[in-house]
Amino acid sequence: MEADQILAVWQRASVPALNRAGLALKQFSGLDFNVTESDVTVVLWSTMSERLKKSITSPLYAVHLRAVGLFHAHILLVFSDANSQRLVGALMGEAVALPLDDMGLSALAEVGNVVGTAFLNVFSDLFHSVWEPTTPRVMLTSAESLTQEISPGTSVLLTQALFQVTDEEVSAEIVVIPTLTG
Amino acid sequence: MKILIADDAAFMRMRLRKLLEEAGHTVLEATNGEEAVAMYREQNPAVVLMDITMPEMDGVTATRHICQSDPKARVIMVSALGQQAMIVSAIQAGAKDFVVKPYEVDRVLGAINKWAQ
């Protein structure tokens, strides 16, 4: 499968996958969770990196995992540090400090795991095939250094996601980068 | 009832601990398979909730060690999507049941109650 075909499939999966992610987070945490998307577009990484640099000037937390199956992709969930703090605080049921400690990083990794798994479940239903997510890795980085890791001409799928949990609304960028070699 | 949670993810252990303590259980924690095996031998918990992917020693190997030394051990695997082959290996190693992450609270408690009886 070519990269543009993978992105097209992923784009179609976005709404049901985020619905499932919200439901899974609700069941898992016992909190009133909802995840929605406000925009899904295919953009060049250079465009994405410019957006990131403008929108997130503080350090950011990026959760990275890979999807391995009929096609492969890298998945990145990108949160500003303030949004990470609010989301983790809501999950833990108490205010948390920055930088996030091991427990906070672990909570953020679990959110990445749930969101990634939700997409892969949608694919499994569509293609009757199994995808395996890798263990999520959380990085505290900057928009500047994150954007340097990927070639500017790479096409990526960018989903603007909104996590609503109890009284908090937390925005995040979900970036999907198809890889042909895994 | 004494339950051993073996998971390298701190948040998952905290979440499970809260859930199980609210249900009236006593909770032990291990952060890898080696610790889980040692703790099982020392503490003899009624049920083990065993994550599959862990450092030092994975959950399937730990389950094999535990079930070899105690064939009546009640180990429930906690797996991620796509780990079907690992679940089969774990069941062959002696695991009694499995739950898939992200799990539903009722499913975890249901599995514990089923095997604790």
Automatic annotation (TrEMBL), chain A:
<protein>
    <submittedName>
        <fullName>Chemotaxis protein CheC</fullName>
    </submittedName>
</protein>
<dbReference type="InterPro" id="IPR028976">
    <property type="entry name" value="CheC-like_sf"/>
</dbReference>
<dbReference type="GO" id="GO:0006935">
    <property type="term" value="P:chemotaxis"/>
</dbReference>
<keyword id="KW-0145">Chemotaxis</keyword>
Automatic annotation (TrEMBL), chain B:
<keyword id="KW-0597">Phosphoprotein</keyword>
<dbReference type="InterPro" id="IPR011006">
    <property type="entry name" value="CheY-like_superfamily"/>
</dbReference>
<dbReference type="GO" id="GO:0000160">
    <property type="term" value="P:phosphorelay signal transduction system"/>
</dbReference>
<comment type="function">
    <text>May play the central regulatory role in sporulation. It may be an element of the effector pathway responsible for the activation of sporulation genes in response to nutritional stress. Spo0A may act in concert with spo0H (a sigma factor) to control the expression of some genes that are critical to the sporulation process.</text>
</comment>
<dbReference type="InterPro" id="IPR052048">
    <property type="entry name" value="ST_Response_Regulator"/>
</dbReference>
<feature type="domain" description="Response regulatory">
    <location>
        <begin position="2"/>
        <end position="116"/>
    </location>
</feature>
<dbReference type="InterPro" id="IPR001789">
    <property type="entry name" value="Sig_transdc_resp-reg_receiver"/>
</dbReference>
<dbReference type="Pfam" id="PF00072">
    <property type="entry name" value="Response_reg"/>
</dbReference>
<feature type="modified residue" description="4-aspartylphosphate">
    <location>
        <position position="51"/>
    </location>
</feature>
<protein>
    <recommendedName>
        <fullName>Stage 0 sporulation protein A homolog</fullName>
    </recommendedName>
</protein>
